[in-house]
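Worked example 3. Consider a protein that binds L263DTV3.
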Amino acid sequence: MSALDLPLELRRALATIARTPRLLVTSDYDGTIAPIVSDPTKAFPHPESVRALRALAGLSGTTAAVISGRALRDLAALSRLPVEVQLVGSHGSEFDVGFVHAIDNDAKQLLDELVVELEQIAAANAGVTVEHKPASVALHVRNAEPVIARQALNKVRQGAANWVGVQVTEGKAVIELAVIVTDKGEALDILRHQESASAAVFFGDDVTDEKAFARLHGPDIGIKIGDGESLAQYRVDSTEDVSTALAFLLDERRRWLSGASAPQIERLTLLASPRSVALVTPDGTITWMCHPEPDSGAVFAHLLGGPDAGHFSVGPQRAALPLSQRYVDRTMTVETRWSSLQVTDYLPHDVGLERTDLTRVITGDAKAVVSFAPRPEFGQVPIQIERETFGLRVFGPNDPLVLRSPGVHWDITTDGVNQSAFAVVDPSEGPITLELRCGTWDLAPSTLEEPERRALAESYWSTWADQLVLPPLKPDLMRRSALTLRGLVHAPSGSILAAATTSLPEDIGGVRNWDYRYCWLRDAALTASALVSVGSLREAEEYLAWVHDVLEKLPGPERLHPLYTIYGTGLPPEAVIDNLPGYAGSRPVRVGNAANMQVQLDVFGPIVDLISTLAHARVAKGITDPDEALPDVDWELVCAMVSAVQRRWQEPDHGIWEIRGNPRHHVYSKVMGWVTVDRAVTLSEQFGRSIDPAWAELRQTISDEVLQKGWNDEVQSFTAAYDGTDLDAATLHIGLSGLIDPADPRFAATVVATEAELRSGSTVYRYHHDDGLPGGEGGFHLCAAWLVEAYLLTGKRSDAEALFAQLVSVAGPTGLLSEEYDPVAERSLGNHPQAYSHLGLLRCAQLLSAN
Ligand SMILES: O=P(O)(O)OC[C@H]1O[C@H](O[C@H]2O[C@H](CO)[C@@H](O)[C@H](O)[C@H]2O)[C@H](O)[C@@H](O)[C@@H]1O
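Given these inputs, the predicted complex is written out as structure tokens:
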């Protein structure tokens, strides 16, 4: 028998529950994983069921248990189930073989009397037998003539079953009298709480199993074996079917946990408006979108939890893979195409600040299936969907949400908690337009027709892209990198996201899952600098205004945190969204980021470096007045950053990689302290600003200390920190920044050591030092970009070109890069798209084009 022989609805339910974060798989024993036989001592389980339960128990986030009417000792001996599978005997009351000691003397006395009574009935009725259990006694009539069986059962029912303190359970050809309360449902709930299960499966065949079925709710599923009334939603015929269902559940869960069904990270394509972002999978599913801000709760978290976590998909009615997905040139509009069908996605711009809108336009001659399952606030609020003349209204979350879809006929379904809407549409008569509007109840037509709204959105990006000065190397990819960086800019506030997502793993199945939907001072400054380098200054100016606003709320610039929310406020405490299983089972899914409480003393450098880059870019654009090229507002910021360095540069910190351990004297942080003062001194000279002579002295002091304490003779390299021999790719900045002459043999040696220690094939790791977290991580694209720059500075052009080519080759089909890359599994890792990776790529192309 194969899984295809199982009822379709059951297969679907099992495939869905396989994706729950913490799964509890429970089963009854006799009649469920072991066939009913005439001799209870010969009821052996199906080996396939044992194998599946054992394998399920070995998976992460998965518990397997058998809850049986049998005595625990007998169950263990007969089933031979391994210890990983939790056994509960005596109809759910015997978790531990020692539990009999907990039965008081009165109960023991009663049990003795019951045994005597039932033994007498058995002795008087041929074929009737008695089974002894720690807190009960069972009378079996399976092997008696039907008349005798009835007579024996009636004798018990009319006699001992009515004694005070006796609990009666009737099953298949058996009546059982217990001196304690038994309830398989209670056992199921104990296991559920013990394991913090987010969903449970229960298989059972007998009336005693109904107590367990009665406890199932929400995403749980119950499967009844055989005939008879039942509270279970699903039914199979035989114990063989149970083996098949368990094996199917195992396969599905294994696949889900291994990430085989997760879309490849680099193939996810970014949609952006000036204030919102979303991701679309290669097959046309909106897999990620947050509202009201990009750092708020997700409406669609499919990326971190599959379809149940919220999705909005469009595809051909006759299932087929897409032929292509691409950006409309120089825009953030994405077209996904199948044979005779296309969906065009973009985030409209002409909406109020309280709105997050998405428009999907379906065109072609083939029918399409649309599935709309919003799960606002990370799916933590149950939602209902109501049909209206012009679309759908979604009730449940705090914020209103509608889908305008004139002419579309929706079917609404429920999974018991949430509703979803499905429709089959025929675009052959004209485009089908679906307008998702988060933050409003308004289902009326927009002021502008859809094509005009789209033109408005597209011209915003194309007009901007047309004025860029891009390197001649890989111009299309570089334009896409620039557009991606611009897409991560949150225009209303001036802040810039480090990436569009949270919790895409740095290690598949691991715990290194962080929330990057915030504005890091360092990442944002580097992004703004990259945009200045291609000729766009506005983002830098607005970002610096955002930094000013943040500073106004602080007692001093040295108190700057490493990151803030989009609107420059402190982050909420880091938390786990437990209902999401994570990308490819990589849990936890986190929101917030505890790194905001760390000391990271490098952050002042990139800000002053950005101001310097901006001032020179203004000059290059023809601004000759030094006070316009370096206005007071920027110079104030420079002075603030220098004062912060003066106060704190000698302290240890958590460094650029936000190590969640003890602070160290990181070389990169000291180098960035030097960059702060160096760029400030240089700016003062170039733009006629007067400075305290102590600045130049400080620059020298930092440099002297780094050169003395950062270099390690033993490893022939500058090291990650003063106190160790471990290496860090960020240390390359000692030469990249100009603190030492790149021709200095110590820099050349550091490049060689970094390559030997941290480069692996096409990628470069940040460090290999034990950072206190379990699991590993991939190589870091930005570090590869730094090594390309270091190769160039040390005369290794062909190495630089080769590594750049490798970096280019791991970009997805629409030109996007995530944070990291696993060179062994050849898959992308980490949040996506990542500003660092794109700014690194852009800089490499600029340097390679210039040389
Ligand atoms: O909760 P379960 O695991 O299903 O246990 C219920 C009872 O199962 C056993 O009896 C039943 O299976 C026997 C073997 O196939 C069969 O001969 C008998 O007629 C059934 O009632 C077990 O012997 C009992 O102790 C359990 O309570």
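Take a moment to read the result before moving on. The two ends are 66 Å apart (CA to CA). The pocket of L263DTV3 is lined by residues 28-31, 36-38, 40, 43, 68-70, 131, 138, 140, 142, 171-174, 176, 206, 208 (CB under 6 Å).
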